[in-house]
Amino acid sequence: MKIGQYRRLHARAELEQLAAGHLLYQLDRRESAPDLQTLIESGYAPAPRHTPTETLAWDDGVAASPVWGTAARMVPLLVLISRSGNTSAPVCI
Asked: Cβ contacts of residue 10 below 8 Å, gap of 6+?
């Protein structure tokens, strides 16, 4: 369970870094970043270390992980455990 909490915490931090970078991009350029790659290549946000950039969804400045969802509405650990089907064993998400 602690490993899952750690991974969830890091995923949230990465998603929030991307959101903060997007806000800075908007302040500087007066427009939304067209995609996540532009945001990273322009230096407004660091590339995520724990989540491959290709797997993240980008919708009008909000990044979403396929596992965790968005930073504002992250999937709880108990839901991920129940999806795995084995509720008796510890889960490493």
From this structure: 49, 50
Tell me whether residue 85 is in a domain: no
- Total count of domains within the chain: 1
Kindly state whether residue 28 falls inside one of the protein's structural domains.
yes
Using one digit for the tens of pLDDT, what is the confidence trace for 16-74? 999 999 999 999 998 888 889 999 999 999 998 877 778 899 988 899 999 899 999 99
Q: Supply the pTM of this predicted model.
A: 0.79
Range of the structural domain that residue 14 is part of: 2-73
90: pLDDT strictly greater than 70 = no
CB-based burial label for 40 (10 Å; 0-12, 13-18, 19+): middle
Pairing, β 62-65 against β 57-59: antiparallel
Q: Is the pLDDT of residue 84 over 80?
A: no
| 79 falls within a domain | no
